[in-house]
Amino acid sequence: MEPYRDPSLSFAERARDLVSRMTLEEKISQILSSAPALARFDLPEMDWWSEALHGIAREGTATMFPQAIGMAATFDPALVRQVGAAAGIEARIKHEQYAAHGVRDLYKGLSIYSPNVNIFRDPRWGRGQETYGEDPWLTSQMGVAYIQGLQGDDPNYLRTAACAKHYAVHSGPEADRHVFNALVSQKDLHETYLPAFEACVKEGKVAQVMGAYNRSQNEPCCASELLLGKILREDWGFQGMVVSDFGAIADFHKSHNLTADEAQSAALAIQKGCDMNLGFVYLYAKDAVERGILSEEDIDTACRRVMQTRLRLGVYECPLQYDHALLDGPEHRALNLQTARESLVLLKNDGMLPLRGIESVAVIGPNAMSLKALMGNYHGDASEYITVLDGIRHNAGAVRIRYSSGCELVPFQMPSMGGRTVTSDESMLHLFGRVPETFNFLELMGHGDRSAEALACAEESDAVILVLGLDETIEGEEMHGEGCDEFADGDKKTLLLPSNQRRLLDEVLALGKPTTVVLMSGSALAVDDKRINALVQAWYPGALGGEAVGELLFGKFSPSGRLPVTFYRGVEDLPDFTDYSMKNRTYRYYYGEPLYPFGFGLSYTSFGYSRLSIRAGEDVTATVQVTNLGAVAGREVIQGYVRWDGGDETQPRWHLCAVEAVTLRPGEAASIQLTIPKPALYSYRADGSRAVEPGSYTLWVGGGQPDARSAELGVSVVEGRFAL
């Protein structure tokens, strides 16, 4: 038996032997993301590009969980680990099904380009929906949990090879991602942008790290001596493989103007530690070797890392087997619905919810019957979708339901009219005086005014549920002219709803009917009309998300989701989108009054906190009594926030350091312990160094942040101090 086939040897030894037997051309072929078969080594074809941001994606039927930002709103890492495990198991099953029929192409492999652990620093960023929010600690916890689920518990073999992306300092604007140079202070770099990646490497043992498109600190992220060499390999001891984002290495010569051609770009990336090219530039690596600008030894190093990962996936022996009945089966569907329930955030409620004592309700809005609004980007295909309207029907009992879309998702724009918006009170004759010969009426079909219908539905009903927001067609990754003028390249220009939805909202509220608004979006929206009785943030809640929304509205469970991002009152309160400084960004550094704070979320009951005690030892432990003060059972997310009292204005106001959850019956109390490990107490200095500083610390424990706005919204918090 050749050493590379011998399971008694280490994966590193086996990879070294395998690569030593390859020709230069064979080695180069294996560091491309679409790797051909090498028959003489019994290596089948493998495409490394697969996605599982919130369930296995782009491979056909699979369980579609809530979008990542919705999973973050659960504040439940244990649940997210279960979701990751379900996604990893389904990826294995799909791979086995396709491979049994000789299909191993794009999206069919076991290399999963998830999770996205970039920091959602600005609510305008369209891809923020893919992240776990704005807080480095929460992002770390969720990212590690998802990786552990994807990769599995076997001490040797990987269920799938997860990938932490996009390393690093990457969060929009989408239009500039191929040319942008993200310049940040050393403090912001190490305090905000790197901790989640460090946790993914050190705690999650992630198999892969993906470099970002942009430059950071004047170096391309996919060939950065600082990021890849010094920090990732030397400081963190990463032993896995680095992959470029798709086309990112081509950007070296096409956009960043750092190299003259493909061979130079390939040489630069490989020499600096980018092991695999998601793209095609490494096809020119042989040219680079022949020109003397790249050594074959550098290619060997990259190829060994790739082969070691492939061996860990069990290319020659596969001890990991799963029952194919799990794919989109009852167990994963139940987990999907549980995740959707925990993701929903109740932002406002004057007693309107849960809905009771009504005979009829009008369900209005472009997202009420939308499948797209369930999905979020990087999604799979579900075998069943339950829209919000479906979920309301399933849970409304004998209540009469009237439905109207009310309007389109965004103002309709006619391409043949130069993008001019067609408003509801304009006709073609009004616009042109006559109908132009080139006008295609088919483009206008289905885009007529539905506001009158919506108002009639509302007038004839006891209450209204308005289902508004966005979807992945206007909010997401680098778009080119899609959507409407109110959005750009997948990013938002403002935090407002699209103008036609704002008009619909105003017209319905003017009727004076009791109104609940359900927002479906992957990011913060500023919806603050005082006439709204109840407001639910539903994110993109997955294929079964409409069922969870219906259950919440009619009181089948008490909501417990929490905001993983700050909901600001407007972009006017924020720095320029291209400014990567954390000054006046996120709850840790924002000194304005938010609309709804990070960590906030209401319940159908209320919880009281008392008897906080703190013990500072190797770790800091806090014990607090939590009591359900209301009349219904509920799940409470208990949050710990800490501040070093010796800090100055360059330090965060406070930061999240612990999360626990408890479900209590009415009147029931429980003593809850939170453990705060020393790394969660780090303070960061101007040079990026960190330490647990000696002195006094303040700890707040409760249902949200210790800020004035949270208190105004009814959040209960207790405070204590300890010394280190």
Sum up the structure in keywords.
single chain, 724 residues, alpha/beta, Rossmann fold, Immunoglobulin-like, 6-stranded mixed beta sheet, 4-stranded antiparallel beta sheet, 21 helices, 27% helix, globular
Report the average pLDDT across residues: 94
Terminal Cα separation, in Å?
58 Å
CATH class of the domain at 338-578: Alpha Beta
Radius of gyration: 26 Å
- The CATH topology assignment of the domain at 338-578 is Rossmann fold
CATH architecture of the domain at 338-578: 3-Layer(aba) Sandwich
- Assign the CATH superfamily of the domain at 338-578: Glycoside hydrolase family 3 C-terminal domain
The tally of strands reads 25
Range of strand content: 15-25%
Characterization of the model:
The chain is α/β, with parallel strands linked by helices. Among the domains are: 241 residues, Rossmann fold, CATH 3.40.50.1700; 117 residues, Immunoglobulin-like (Sandwich). It is 27% helix and 17% strand. It contains 21 helices and 25 strands. The chain has a six-stranded mixed β-sheet, sandwiched between helices. The chain has a four-stranded antiparallel β-sheet with strand order 20-19-24-25, with no helix packed on it. It has a three-stranded parallel β-sheet with strand order 3-5-8. Helix 1 crosses helix 12 and helix 15 packs across helix 19. It starts with 10 loop residues before the first helix and ends with a strand. About 2% of the residues have low confidence.
